[in-house]
Specification:
The complex is a heterodimer of chains A (382) and B (369). Chain A is of the alpha/beta class. Chain A folds into two domains: 16-251, 3-Layer(aba) Sandwich (Aspartate Aminotransferase, domain 2), CATH 3.40.640.10; 256-376, Alpha-Beta Complex (Aspartate Aminotransferase, domain 1). Helices cover 40% and strands 14% of the residues of chain A. In chain A, helix 11 packs across helix 14 (356-376). The model of chain A has no long low-confidence stretch (mean pLDDT 94). Chain B is an alpha/beta fold and 369 residues long. Chain B has three domains: 4-131 and 175-202, HUPs (Rossmann fold); 231-285, Adenine nucleotide alpha hydrolases-like domains (SH3 type barrels, Roll); 291-368, Translation factors (Elongation Factor Tu (Ef-tu), domain 3, Beta Barrel), CATH 2.40.30.10. Helices cover 25% and strands 29% of the residues of chain B. Chain B has seven helices and 17 strands. Chain B has helices spanning 13-24, 57-70, 80-96, 103-122, 166-170, 181-190, 212-224, and strands at residues 4-8, 28-35, 74-78, 127-129, 134-138, 145-149, 172-173, 235-239, 244-248, 271-276, 281-285, 291-302, 312-317, 325-333, 336-346, 353-358, 361-368. In chain B, the strands form three sheets. Chain B has a six-stranded antiparallel beta barrel with strand order 12-15-14-13-16-17. Chain B has a five-stranded parallel β-sheet with strand order 3-2-1-4-7, sandwiched between helices. Chain B has a four-stranded mixed β-sheet with strand order 9-8-11-10, with no helix packed on it. In chain B, a hairpin with a 2-residue loop joins strand 14 (325-333) and strand 15 (336-346). In chain B, helix 1 (13-24) packs parallel to helix 2 (57-70), helix 1 crosses helix 6 (181-190) and helix 3 packs antiparallel against helix 4. The longest helix of chain B is centred in the N-terminal third of the chain and has 20 residues, at 103-122. The model of chain B has no long low-confidence stretch (mean pLDDT 88). The chains are: A alpha/beta (382), B alpha/beta (369). Chain A binds chain B through residues 300, 302-304, 306-307, 309-311, 321-327, 369, 372-373, 376-378, and chain B through 4, 30, 33, 35, 55, 57, 60, 64, 73, 75-78, 80, 118-119, 121-124.
Chain lengths: 382, 369
């Protein structure tokens, strides 16, 4: 059976151009970028070219890019690197939202254990944080605001530019988790006005295990990994030259994810039209072009994911817990969905490889399995 | 595409062999592990050893590894809510009511052969297979699905399977019912399954170290968040003559037939004869006081028999591993029978299952009142 991939928000395949670059680098550019000799210089050249490519893609300068092992490390470095700095005023406070990725939420939970006060802002039924809530939550001692750029489950874009201007007025550093956005669609960090921004390579054609954190010039970040003087003392560890190079190449790819909006809309509209009792989670006016999160009332999302997988279509539902079982999405619950509706929701996330034919096949499979699930489920929706 | 079979995989040897066997036969299978209980949920109960207990991460890892090795799709499905509602809550309620419940039967009836079958349905599977030791056959004359004890009687699990309906039986495969454990282990080795040498667990999967009282107390504390048990849990221990013989810290901590842990010195061995959680009384007595000739069984489900209209002879099992005892079943009404044993039986325990056999045929079963 052929299998088709509609789960790009979880991860996406390595792009062909990137793969070539990656294998070349791994076989040929094996020097340590910190070494002074020929081999080290070759590695350093590659590393810095990659840094410039990432900076060009994000609209910042190369010195503001710190390479990391991926989105989780970038988020952790931003949150801990700012919040753990010694402060004059106590208690220190951090503002974030209830819909953040676990890489931010769990880091904030750790900060709480360390005595830092964390405010978790709610979202409206559209799935968006309200910028005025951020303003209202500012207190004496607020050291960091961390609000994601686009949510991984709904694709909903947050009012990051507005929050950035609020943060700037209050002189509070603002981090945004841009893992679902950076590298996929044009982002200009200068214009956006954020102080820290996380990206992850495997979301847009680079391999797993490499990412970056943008740290605006003038932002003082304390390192969380200690060792050599790598990455301007912001992140120790021998540089992952091949990975960073791959990230740079992925940033230079010409594919624009905005072009996926048409396919996504076709998928979404077809499902809404052909399957009764369906609705879109998240405000469609503020969304990543590749993501659609749909509630199939009365259908167990987990069962639909398995049923679709057995038909050859990979989609997702909720978030996986440690065993691999599915738990209802904290994001959908935060948007006010009932636990039942949260469990009935399925995420479709498209990527560069998806074609119209694949989408048509997916629509057919979704319509068939939704009908089947409704037929056998005790909680049938008429 | 050939019919799909959903195989319930625990990560143990038995269900792994079932999956490998069916795959080898060319059947189209998908492995599924049911996540029933979060072993880290009640941290005060955590022990170092959590493997071999249901739903530990190691077991899920083992099941997944078998699927990878043999080469079939594998999924973990979250049934924690259903397990809580259909197994844990009744389990605690039964103990609190002074009975001794059988969670495995509840799990089989409401989770493995109900929710799991529904799940199998929903993903497009026509039938399910499990690693239970029991046999299902179809009586061609009556059209009824019949259940028989496993060929390897020492592994027989029919005591926990009397709650299955005809519909459930018609869609269930027990490929191990004709095998003995040694053969199953040998197959695991033949298939080079990573779990071939794995130890088995016989304890209640969600209760660490068999300490069900500690589990119930921790679970109840989490439920009402008061940090205190809901009811007074002290009372007296009396003997069969009504004399007070000591104090206890909660009648729910005692099981009929229990000998250890009474903390009362006596020339003769003493056993728990009965418990009453309303008055918080635990009655103790000699082994003879534990013997009963009759009992009433309710909440019946008929498996191989279609029902009981007139008194009938059967062999009756009153706990797992109990040697079935000859008895006469007298129907009281549609949902209750009186069981009259030929020889008095020791420790007839309210809340436990009673399973009726006719030779190797599982006639039906119910709950001891």
């Amino acid at each position: 059976m052929q299998h088709f991939y509609f789960d790009h928000n979880a991860t996406s395949p390595v792009a062909q151009e990137v793969l070539k670059d990656l294998t070349d680098a791994m076989s040929e550019v094996y020097g340590n970028a910190s070494s002074i000799h020929h081999f080290g210089q070759a590695a350093k050249r590659r590393l810095e070219a990659a840094r410039r490519a990432v900076a060009a893609r994000l609209g910042c300068t190369d010195r503001e890019i710190v390479f990391t092992s991926g989105g989780t490390e970038s988020d952790n470095l931003a949150v801990f690197g700012i919040a753990r700095k010694p402060a004059v005023r106590s208690p220190k406070r951090v503002i974030t939202s209830t819909i953040e990725h676990p890489a931010v939420l769990s880091a904030c939970a750790q900060l709480e254990r360390e005595g830092i006060e964390v405010t978790y802002l709610p979202v409206d039924t559209d799935g968006r944080v309200r910028a005025q809530d951020v303003r209202a939550a500012l207190r004496q001692g607020t050291v960091l605001i961390s609000i994601m750029h686009a949510n991984n489950e709904t694709g909903v874009m947050q009012p990051v530019a507005e929050i950035a201007s609020i943060a700037r007025q209050a002189s509070v550093p603002f981090h945004s988790d841009g893992v679902q956005v950076g590298g996929r669609v044009p982002v200009n960090l200068r214009e956006l006005g954020v102080d820290l921004y996380s990206i992850s390579g495997h979301k847009f054609g680079a391999p797993k295990g490499v990412g970056a954190l943008y740290v605006r010039k003038g932002i003082d970040l304390s390192a969380q990994l200690h060792g050599g003087h790598h990455e301007r003392d912001r992140r120790a560890g021998t540089e992952n030259v091949a990975g960073a190079g791959a990230l740079g190449t992925a940033c230079s790819l010409t594919f624009e994810w905005e072009s996926l909006a048409e396919l996504r809309d076709h998928l979404e509209q077809s499902i809404l039209r052909q399957v009764p009792g369906t609705s879109v989670n998240g405000n469609p006016d503020y969304r990543m072009p590749n993501t659609s999160n749909i509630c199939f009332e009365g259908v167990e999302g987990e069962a639909m994911v398995i049923a679709l997988d057995l038909r050859g279509y990979a989609v997702s539902s909720g978030s996986a817990c440690s065993s691999g079982a599915v738990e209802p999405s904290h994001v959908l619950l935060a948007m006010g969905l009932s636990p039942e509706d949260a469990r009935s929701s399925v995420r479709f996330s498209l990527g560069p490889g998806n074609t119209r034919e694949q989408v048509d096949g997916l629509i057919e499979a979704v319509v068939a399995s939704a009908a089947h699930l409704r037929r056998i489920s005790p909680s049938i929706v008429s | 595409m050939p019919d799909l079979i959903a195989v319930a995989m625990s990560g143990g040897v038995d269900s792994s062999v079932v999956a490998a066997l069916l795959h080898r036969e060319g059947r189209n299978i998908a492995g599924m592990t049911m996540q029933l209980w979060n072993q880290r949920r009640l941290p005060e109960l955590s022990t170092e050893k959590t493997t071999g207990r249901c739903c530990s991460l190691d077991d899920v890892y083992d099941a997944r590894r078998v699927a990878e090795q043999v080469g079939f799709p594998f999924y973990v499905v979250n049934l924690e809510r259903q397990f809580e509602q259909n197994v844990i809550e009744p389990f605690v309620a039964e103990y609190n009511a002074g009975r001794t419940p059988v969670p495995c039967t509840l799990c089989n009836t409401f989770i493995k052969f109900d929710r799991f079958l529904e799940l199998a349905d929903s993903v497009g599977a026509q039938s399910i297979a499990t690693g239970h030791y029991a046999r299902i056959t179809r009586n061609v004359e009556t059209g009824r699905y019949e259940m028989r004890t496993a060929v390897d009687f020492s592994k027989d699990q029919t005591y926990f399977l009397w709650g299955l309906t005809q519909e459930q039986l018609s869609r269930t495969l027990f490929p191990l019912g004709e095998m003995n454990k040694a053969e199953v282990r040998a197959l695991a080795e033949t298939f080079h399954l990573a779990v071939a040498g794995k130890h088995e667990s016989y304890e209640i999967c969600f209760v660490p170290n068999g300490d069900y009282a500690a589990f119930m107390e921790a679970w109840s504390r989490e439920k009402d968040k008061t940090g205190e048990p809901a009811e007074a849990t002290v009372g007296v221990v009396v003997d069969t003559e009504g004399r007070e013989r000591g104090k206890h810290a909660g009648a729910h901590r005692y099981t009929v037939g229990q000998r250890k842990g009474l903390g009362i010195a006596a020339p003769e061995p003493l056993y728990v004869i009965s418990t009453d959680t309303k008055t918080q009384t635990v009655t103790i007595g000699s082994n003879d006081a534990l013997l009963r000739s009759t009992m009433v069984v309710s909440g019946l489900n008929w498996v191989s028999w279609s029902g009981l209209a007139a008194p009938a002879r059967a062999q009756v099992r009153i706990r797992n591993r109990h040697v079935p005892a000859a008895a006469t079943l007298n129907p009281i009404d549609g949902n209750r029978v009186e069981v009259r044993f030929d020889e008095p039986q020791r420790a007839v325990t309210p809340g436990q299952g009673a399973v009726f056999y006719s030779g190797d045929l599982v006639a039906g079963g119910g709950w001891i009142e």
